[in-house]
Amino acid sequence: MIIRNARLFWSAALVVGAGCTSDTAEEKSAVEEPVTTEDPMLEPDSGPAGPDVEVGAIVITELMPNVKSSAIDWLELQNVSGDKIQLEGCILRDDGDEQFTIARPLTLAPGARAVLASAADDADGAPAALAKPAYVFAAGEFQLAAPGPDQVVLECRGVVVDRVAYAAYAPGPATEARGLQLDPAFFDAKKNDAASAWCYASLPVLTEEFLYHGDHVASPGVENPACTVLAYGYNDQADVLVDGIDLEQTMKVVERDFGSLTTTSMMTIWAIRDQVMTPEVAQRIAELYLANIGDIYEADNAGRAYDGNFGVWHFAWSIANLYRNGNDAVRARLQLAYDDALTRPETLKRFKLIAIDHVRGDTMLMGDIHEVGRAYALGHIVAPGNPRYLQSIEDYMP
Description:
Structural class: alpha+beta
Distance between the termini: 50 Å
Order of helices and strands: EEEHEEEEEEEEHEEEEEEEEHHHHHHEH
Number of helices: 9
Radius of gyration: 24 Å
């Protein structure tokens, strides 16, 4: 299975890869004796190698490439067959000379997962499957390269059971330690060949369940969350332009929203952040941003579930897209606001990582994103003659 790119996910567009430095093997301590696991579904002392393993019986379900010499790289395997499978003697190899052999009994029960890592993670808060991996391989023998390309081949007794190749590992600016995951709906030797079956672990938004060490996001040893496809997320401005948009009337909606500052006052600006701006409208937006961004942290949430962290995240994201989509004249009007917006993600108590991704990511995330965003845009953008949107400012019902 070769991963090249994929559909838009909440985490990012999937562009995967890896690469490593020559000193990695020396700086990482090789573990002579593999660490055992207490997972009852794993049976590490179950005896000698069993019968041949069928193609697709074990699936590679998650990867964490080696992003720096001090990092731990790991991969996750899952038994998707109905039989116990003995992995002793199986080989994990890449597209070069690196490989290691599972040198002791390690049996996976049906449905069981095993995390194989270059070291045990002894830091506080490490997921159980990394604190005590099912198997530890020597870093000098095998690495998942970042930024790629690289591949992982699982071969058992002459049978290539599964293979994952990634062209590039580039999870975005928020964190370099982000799991590359297979969607649970594609845990199959054929289905997992689709690039759209893979995604980066979603950055924390509604939950921090898969966040550890402050900036690591992955799900080692537990069920992968489904890859969340963004219904209205795009990377091309041409895909998000609103026919007939009236910026002047829409800015009147914006000004009404800022009449009494709340944590969502900026959301109409967010809804038009990818439209073609005039320098004059860009100037008004920049002035609203600079006058209000500091107060949004403690603003009234108007009875909604969105706090000041949400508001600052979306306002900074709006300015970033407006600036990067704009021409030179628009950028000149937005420059001070943009310079400030770049610094805001680190000030957030919540949503910091995803805000970094949206404000400073190499690829802009545009569009209404999801159904809630689409409904908001339809009710706040004025586009006379376009029946989906408001026809005039008089139609606006705050």
